[in-house]
Amino acid sequence: MPDMVTITREEYEELSTNAVLFRQIADSAPVLIWLSGTDALCTWFNEPWLDFRGRTLEQETGNGWAEGVHKEDFDRCLEIYLNNFEKRTPFQMEYRIQRADGEYRWLLDHGVPRYSDAGLFLGFIGSCVDITDVNEIKQAWDTQQNISKRLGELAAIVESSDEVIVGKTLDGIVRSWNAAASRTFGYTAEEMIGQSILKLIPEELHLEEKTFIEKLKSGKRIEQFETRRITKSGQILDVSLTLSPIRDVQGTVIGASKILRDISKAKRMERSLLQAEKLAATGRMAATIAHEINNPLEAVMNLLYLIRPTISGDQGQEYLAAAEKELQRVSHIAKQTLGYYREDAAPTLVSLNEIVQHAIAIYEPRCHASEIRIHPSLSSTRKILLRRGEMMQVISNLLANSIYALSGGGTIHIDVSDSESGPQGVSFSVRDNGVGIGPDDLPRVFDAFFTTRATIGTGIGLFVAKQLIEGHGGHITIESSKDIREHGTKVQVFLPSVTS
Questions:
Q1: Is 260 in a helix, a strand, or coil?
Q2: Residue closest to 213 by CA, chosen among 260, 252, 166, 171
Q3: CA-wise closest residue to 257 among 157, 334, 353, 190
Q4: pLDDT in tens for each of the 500 residues of the chain?
Q5: Nearest 5°: phi and psi at 148?
Q6: Cα separation of 494 and 345, whole Å?
Q7: Euclidean distance between CA atoms 27 and 46, whole angstroms
Q8: Most exposed residue of 325, 342, 383, 500, measured as fewest CB within 10 angstroms of its CB?
Q9: Is residue 119 within 8 Å of residue 141, measured between CB atoms?
Q10: Quick check: 108 and 127 in contact, CB under 8 A?
């Protein structure tokens, strides 16, 4: 029970006058005002509050007003009110309360303790403001900020992804282009956004893109589709694509998101493994062949030995010696099992001029019969460390290829010269004016089992030649053209000088 205070008649009349004045001011205020007594129950509400609630003062006093508080907010607000009432401390809270039209509105309620002039605690006074519209604006702002944050996070993920992520319209116009796309294709975002996606697609695959678009329009997703794309520099890439339709708020497909992975390395490894399997199979077959033909070769060598006394004349003896040497080389090649077995003999100082001259002597009769002219230019004076048998095999393979390309006659130029610029060594080239090699085939000519000869080619000649040249520390390149006026092929080889 609060302490009893005795006041005079004049003091009572003054309090009554002040109370009337307060209520007049409170009723005309643009806020909702309430009073509570020392028992924490509400004793009075101003006219704006009663109008807001659509109830009488009698209905609202006590705990009547609490009937309109939203059930999800009631316990929380009651705890705040009672804790601060007990401590006599100001408070502020937000809660929903039902308006006269039945709608729940958010109020910001600020309550403070009130005292008499004598310092006697009289209860609390509170003022409320409808903040529903403010909350809606705040919620919309928070939602927008949250969306912006999520979009920023998503953009950061897309930009930092190691995979190419591209957005495009159904017309194939690029709308987004991440950093991985720039690294993979060489185009910046500024160069690609607004451009057609066909810029990245080889011309022969343009129809493929139209098929993709039709599937995307029907809402279908395309997963892990392997195809090819072209970079800014013209390089062709093997890629894996996943395409997903992009929809607007109504669910209509308006574009496509494309995730692309460069699988060129994986494809090269796959081809290398396949090639290795082929080479392993060929090695087993070659070993068998070498074993089977060794005895007939020895028999032929014995027959040549027996026929030697019957041949008269220097030219006949010269041809016989060349035949014996070539049979020895055939036997050695068989033992090499198509390039798997390297020559055991140690390299010796050899003149490349001499090896080329010997190869020309072997192939010249065949060239003469096919109306092919050989023009040698042998200016090298340097001897270099070589395995003679392996280098003879290289030159023979190159000459055989040129002869095949000149089936209707033509010219073969063989040049051997000392290289003085850059690393010292010997360069030689074999150049013909044959049919040439197409640009699609040229990058593959050194691959095992690749050949442009439909029936007689094995596809291992240039492969073996490259292995043998690189085994000597050198390198081999090829140029070719099928142009009507300037057709032909040139193979260039460099072998470094190595001191013994």
A1: strand
A2: 171
A3: 157
A4: 444 445 455 554 554 555 666 777 777 878 899 999 999 999 999 999 999 999 999 999 998 999 999 999 999 999 999 999 999 999 999 999 999 999 999 999 999 998 877 788 889 998 898 888 876 666 766 666 675 666 566 667 666 677 888 888 888 898 888 888 899 899 998 999 899 998 898 988 888 888 888 888 888 888 888 889 999 998 998 888 888 888 877 788 888 888 888 888 877 777 766 666 666 566 566 656 665 666 576 667 667 777 778 887 788 778 778 787 777 767 666 655 444 444 556 788 889 999 899 888 878 877 887 889 999 999 999 999 888 878 888 888 898 888 888 877 899 999 999 987 778 899 999 999 988 888 888 888 888 777 776 555 556 778 878 888 988 889 999 999 988 888 899 999 999 987 44
A5: -60, -40
A6: 22
A7: 5
A8: 500
A9: no
A10: no
- Judging by DSSP bridges, how do beta strands 410-419 and 372-378 pair with one another? parallel
Return d(Cα 190, Cα 167) in angstroms, integer: 14
Which residue in this structure is represented by tokens 């669910």? 251
SS3 label, residue 500: coil
81 closest CA partner among 73, 93, 65? 93
Three-class DSSP category at 267:
helix
pLDDT of residue 27: 79
Quote the CA–CA distance of 186 and 234 in Å, as a whole number: 10
Q: Say how many residues make up the chain.
A: 500
Question: Considering only CA atoms, which of 92, 83, 166, 168 is closest in space to residue 131?
Answer: 92
Give the residue carrying structure tokens 């508080």. 69
Q: Are 390 and 424 in contact (CB under 8 A)?
A: no
Helix axis angle for 314-335 and 264-307, nearest 10°, is 140
Name 112's bridge partners: 125
Residues paired with 106 in a beta bridge: 96
Residues 6+ apart with CB under 8 A from 22: none
Give the contacts of 436 (CB within 8 A, at least 6 positions apart).
Answer: 405, 480, 481, 482, 483, 487, 488, 489
- CA 74 vs. chain centroid, Å, equals 56
Q: Which tokens hold the place of 315? A: 């030219």
State which H helix or E strand residue 291 sits in: helix 264-307
E strand or H helix at 372: strand 372-378
- Give the bridge partners for 414, in sequence order: 376, 430
The tokens for 90 are 């100001």
Residue type, 371: E
Closest listed residue to residue 176, CA positions, set 164, 168, 184: 168
Backbone angles phi, psi at 325, to 5 degrees: -65, -40
